[in-house]
Structure formats: C-alpha cells, structure tokens
Design a protein that fits this description.
CATH architecture of the largest domain: Sandwich
Strand order of the largest sheet: 6-5-18-15-8-9
Low-confidence stretches: 1-18
Radius of gyration: 19 Å
Strand content: 25-35%
CATH class of the largest domain: Mainly Beta
Number of helices: 11
Number of domains: 2
Distance between the termini: 10 Å
Number of strands: 18
Shape: globular
Order of helices and strands: EHHEHEHEHHEEEHHHEEEEEEHEEEEEH
Oligomer: single chain
Structural class: alpha+beta
C-alpha cells in the first residue's frame, strides 16, 4: 500500500509534549552494543524511560526486516509514541512502519553508527538520552523516498549510490557485530585500487557522470565525518554530493579532504541542492544502492523529497535553527 505521508495539521507552537499515554520501545536484541552488554543496556534504558514517566511496552525485533511490522502492530494497539533503541537500520525499518500514522518517532542511540543521534547531538548513551526524552519536542520532518521499478522505500538520512553502497553490501555482518564500524573500514580498504562503475545522475535536467553519489538530508556521514556540510535534517531539500573517479585510488584525496573538513572546492566533487534526483547506468552495468546504511538494491532509481512525512522528537538545541515546524502530538495524516 502506498501512503501519502504528509502531515495534515498546521504546527501549533503552544501545544508541547508530555501527553503520551503509551510508549512502544522497539529494539534489536542482536544489535552489537545491546548484545555485547548482555542485554543490560536495554534494561537500563527501559528503567530510565519508566522513571521519566513513560507507560512503556517493550517490543524486541525478531529478525532482520521485522521492525516495520512490529511498529505498525504497536500503533494499532494504541501506542501514541514509538521509541527506537538501535542503529540507523532499525530506525529506518521502524520509520517504514509508522510513516503516515501521525504517531511521533523518538530515537535512542544503541547501534553501530548512530548517524541520526550524532546529527542531533544526543550522544551515544541511550540511558542518558532516555532520561531527557521528555524534554524533546515533535517537529515536522520531511523524508526521502527511494523509488526502484515501482518499489518505494522511505528514509530519513541518506541514499548512497556507487562506492559506499558497494561497501555496505559487502560488509561482513559477523565482523560488524563483533567490532562495529571497524567492519566498514575493512570492507572499504579491501577495494583499494579497484575500478569503479560509472553512472549518470540527473539533477534539474542536467546529467552528471560519477562513481559515488551521496543524496543526503543530514551533515553527518557514518557517525564520524561530514560530507554534505550545508544541509539540515529539518530542510525540505537534499544536498547532493557527486564524486568523479574511475578507481578507488581517486578517492584517497577525497578522503583526506573529508577528514580535514576541506572537501569544498576540490576538483572532481560537485555539490548541488535538489528535491528530486534520477540515477541510471549503462545496460549490463551493476551499480549498487544503500539507504541509511542498509543495502537497497541497484540502479536505476529515483530519489525524491516527501515533505512533512513524520513527527520526530528533536532536542531544542538542534531544532532552534529551523523555527516554525513544531507540531501537535497526534497530528492527523492524510492517506
């Protein structure tokens, strides 16, 4: 079923939160940090939420790809706030389940990269974040939508096409569970010196050739770096960063520039703003795609902005730069 995700109500700044009657906590018990803690991390997170006044219904995922159905089930049972303790992949799955329902989403960092948590500067401690959750307010947030041969997938952070998607598709899940982000470094450096497939990205009717395209709603990338440096989560546009290069060796200076915060103006990099992006490759070529750090098939694809897709609980310290998006809890959604 395809949804019209848009929030129908207008923001009402005078109506702030703390009116939630039932909060669902969705978490992945196999997530690296939760698993390595012997589940004590999630138990302490639950305790912090209950101490803060939440009537809590814990809902562990039961395997890959199950968070969306669990989130929908919790909403059908009356949850008026869905909290996710996990990484960006679990958050993305949960978003699929609640987009279009009007139920706000809150996130607690407990995964490998936690890009969204880093973006909003809420730290890496889910217990500490849970204790302050009642201070956060719901803001209207646009999402991205990836469309591939009629299939649609909503996302909150970014889509990567080409080089980084290849890394995401081939990272060792076992190594990731044991070592976290180190697994991505291993997968990335294993490609050093290899050739890269070229593809075309169309923005505003202009075609660009590249081997890595980042289509992002956030500045943070991977939890450690910034690539799209002028976008904000509450913006209604993507920042599109395109990288040229026929082999991974071309990306060594790009990486140095990224690590030093000096990518802007580098030869071979194009930075654009867009609400819609199309990408395709030559017949017979295979160019991979990732969404929010999870494999998402291959080209051709279209990526577009879905305005006002959900209500997200956001700390005031992050949202203060983008006024006018505060929304009343339980805002209706047009389907």
């Amino acid at each position: 079923m395809l949804l019209n995700y848009n929030l129908a109500s207008k923001p009402r700044p005078e109506s702030i939160i703390n009116s939630y009657k039932r909060s669902a906590l969705i978490y992945n018990p196999r997530a690296g940090r939760i698993l390595r803690s012997g589940q004590s991390l999630i138990r302490r997170t639950e305790e912090a939420l209950r101490n803060a006044g939440h009537n809590l219904s814990p809902a562990p995922t039961t395997g890959p790809g199950t968070a969306a159905a669990i989130a929908r089930e919790q909403v059908d049972r009356g949850a008026d706030l869905v909290i996710v303790a996990g990484g960006d992949g679990t958050i993305n799955e949960t978003l699929e389940g609640i987009a279009g329902t009007g139920v706000p989403l809150a996130i607690l960092p407990a995964g490998t990269a936690n890009v969204l948590a880093t973006e909003m500067k809420i730290g890496r401690d889910p217990v500490k974040a849970a204790a302050h959750l009642h201070e956060w307010k719901p803001y209207r947030v646009s999402a991205g939508e990836l469309i591939q041969e009629g299939r649609r997938r909503i996302f909150l952070l970014l889509t990567g096409i080409g080089l980084d998607a290849h890394i995401v598709h081939h990272v060792s899940n076992g190594l990731k569970a044991r070592t976290g982000k180190f697994a991505y470094w291993v997968a990335g450096w294993s490609l050093l010196g290899r050739g890269l497939p070229q593809f075309e990205v169309e923005v505003d009717g202009v075609s660009h050739t590249c081997s890595f395209a980042l289509i992002s709603k956030v500045r943070n990338y991977g939890g450690d770096f910034e690539i799209a440096r002028k976008v904000h989560l509450l913006d209604d546009t993507f920042e599109v960063v395109l990288f040229q290069g026929k082999t991974t060796l071309n990306f060594v200076p790009y990486f140095v520039g990224m690590a030093c915060g000096r990518m802007e103006g580098m030869r071979g990099i194009t930075v654009l703003r867009a609400r819609k992006v199309k990408a395709c490759c030559a017949a017979g070529a295979r160019v991979l795609v990732q969404v929010d750090g999870e494999p998402a098939g291959e080209l051709p694809a279209e990526v577009r902005i879905v305005p006002d897709a959900l209500a997200l609980l956001v700390p005031d310290s992050y949202a203060v730069k983008v006024p006018g998006r505060l929304v009343e809890p339980g805002a209706a959604i047009r389907r």
